[in-house]
Amino acid sequence: MAERREFEFTDANFERIRQFVSEHTGIVLTKKKKDMVYGRLSKRVRKGGFGSFDAFLHELDIGNAEEQDFMINAITTNLTAFFRENHHFEHLANVVIPELIEKNKHSKRIRIWSAGCSTGEEPYSIAITLKENIPDFDKWDIKILATDLDANVVAHGKAGTYREERITGLPDKIIKRWFTSGEGDDGEMVQVAPELQDIITFKRLNLLHEWPMKGPFDFMFCRNVVIYFDKDTQRVLFDRYADILAPNAHMFIGHSETLFKVSTRFESLGQTIYKKLN
What we know:
Layout: H1 11-25, H2 34-47, H3 53-61, H4 65-75, H5 86-103, E1 109-115, H6 121-133, E2 141-148, H7 151-159, E3 161-163, H8 172-178, E4 179-184, E5 187-192, H9 194-197, E6 200-204, E7 217-222, H10 231-244, E8 245-253, E9 266-270, E10 273-276
Helix pairs in contact: 1-3, 5-6
């Protein structure tokens, strides 16, 4: 027997949500996500005093910006970790950084984009890798742009404060060098080093809208982002990525993603690492 729900959640309700999410984020919600969507939105329906999904969805239809933002933040999934898919950071340290040190030795300038940065673990991991592998780092002009659709996780990333459990398993030398411990309201917390924060700019960005930055970026991470988009949207996105990347720039994507039949502007180096073709 199906579990009784607090609020009626019809197929028509779900379809309206699917259309809203598709139009505003490009994310395609399958029917299998219906229970997940109900779980993430039902508390809002109750706490907001809407009384029904129809009333809540009416607020979206009339352009209630607060509820639209909540919807986007609630539906986008944020799963990340420091040095997640560590082979990417090994390639960054062993291949990409030495190439860029030579290529950009005159300009001493490097620009990086972390697209779909979630709560910031990815751009901070990039920053640590750069700091530890560029001997004269302070003589370089290095900036990381970290963007995400979800305003809440962008704010989290900018603050740079994490539960201590988030860094469990990292090498002691990284923990000691790049994190400081302190008591938080809900247990032990750690703070990333200010020198990492200084080279990262966190911004909210909808990838499907216009991009205010012009590039070129010397490499970018876009991991576990395009899996939410259909193939046509992926093709448009990777074409735009190629346009904003420098010649021969590296692109890192998620472990379950591929550019096969999506883009011919990158060559695969294996392990979801790509290089832009000229």
